[in-house]
Amino acid sequence: MNVSLRQVEIFLAVARTLSFSQAARDCHLSQPALSANVKRLEESMGARLFDRHTRKVSMTAVGQEFFKVASAMAENMDMALARMQDFVSGKRGRLVIAAAPSMAASFAPQAIAEFARDHPEVDVELHDELSDLSVGLVRSGVADLALSPVVPKAADLRQLELFRDHLVLVCHPSHPLASRATVRWRDVQPYAHVVVNQSSSVRQLVDAQYARYGVRLRPAFEVAHVGTMLGLIAAKLCVGELPESFIRNIDTTGLSYRRIASSAAYRTIGAITSSSRSPSPLIAPFLECCQRLATRFARN
């Protein structure tokens, strides 16, 4: 059976008015065109839907039964189109966010909470991955957006810069550097260090800062998890560097931290999407939340 939505619409117009001339006006058709559509619909059904008399139109038993079906179809279509309109306008849907570890522990939860207050019908999914993996999820289409350090020379990505995430030195409160108002790289170099493994964007930045001074970092400890790093520092075994956005959002009992005085000791955090795919309608309102939150992060 081949029945078009337009034929259903025309049938309902005739059924509700019981007038071919009025239904034609309602459907913006000529009366012959409307009659032809009804005839084709009846042929598809294999039965008459209307009994036509000189001055009277009435539904047949088949027409009355199809009226129930067609009304439900029209109502379901209206509901489906309303849901699509909600999706297009960013009121409904699913948004998948990938976030680098420091962003997943600090910026991302606050951005998601602010977004959720204005978009309660949107399902948000968060993947906490290393920076390279987060960007990879965007490139593969698994994630709609990544919150991560910006990627240099990446033509396949759209990157909205949000804020500068400065590195801080983390040490025990009794450490000599804890009493200083500012800390420079040459102050840090003599002390035993703990670092996260080389796949971390923070580790890569620390290595690059040491290289600027012609020094190769030889850490006393190299770990996979920040929790281990903080435990070693709290035990007075070493010092380390972490992003300020992260350290400001955790319990720092037993620890001290100082921003490192260097014009290059920071990462630029961005909201990263694919430039090769049309963006989800949900991305724009989420980016607005990110920009508002980034302003507060930069101010603090």
Are there runs of 5+ residues with pLDDT below 50, and where? Answer: none
- Tell me the name of the CATH homologous superfamily of the largest domain: Periplasmic binding protein-like II
Radius of gyration: 32 Å
The CATH class of the largest domain is identified as Alpha Beta
Oligomerization status of the protein chains: single chain
Total discrete domains: 3
Approximate strand percentage: 15-25%
Q: What is the name of the CATH architecture of the largest domain?
A: 3-Layer(aba) Sandwich
Number of strands: 11
Tell me briefly what this model is:
The chain has helices at 5-17, 20-26, 31-45, 61-88, 101-104, 107-118, 131-140, 185-188, 201-212, 226-234, 244-247, 283-299, and strands at residues 50-52, 57-59, 93-99, 122-128, 145-149, 157-171, 194-196, 221-223, 240-243, 256-259, 266-274. With 300 residues, it is of the alpha/beta class.
Topology readout:
Elements (H helix, E strand, L loop, with lengths): L4 H13 L2 H7 L4 H15 L4 E3 L4 E3 L1 H28 L4 E7 L1 H4 L2 H12 L3 E7 L2 H10 L4 E5 L7 E15 L13 H4 L5 E3 L4 H12 L8 E3 L2 H9 L5 E4 H4 L8 E4 L6 E9 L8 H17 L1
Parallel strand pairs: 3-4, 3-5, 7-8
Antiparallel strand pairs: 1-2, 5-11, 6-9, 6-10, 6-11
Helix pairs in contact: 1-2, 1-3, 1-4, 2-3, 6-12
Give a verbal description of the structure:
With 300 residues, this protein is an alpha/beta fold. It has three domains: 5-88, Arc Repressor Mutant, subunit A, CATH 1.10.10.10; 93-163 and 267-299, D-Maltodextrin-Binding Protein, domain 2, CATH 3.40.190; 165-266, D-Maltodextrin-Binding Protein, domain 2. The chain contains twelve helices and eleven strands. Strands 3, 4, 5, 6, 9, 10 and 11 form a seven-stranded mixed sheet that branches. Helix 1 crosses helix 3 (31-45) and helix 1 packs across helix 4 (61-88). The radius of gyration is 32 Å and the shape is rod-shaped.
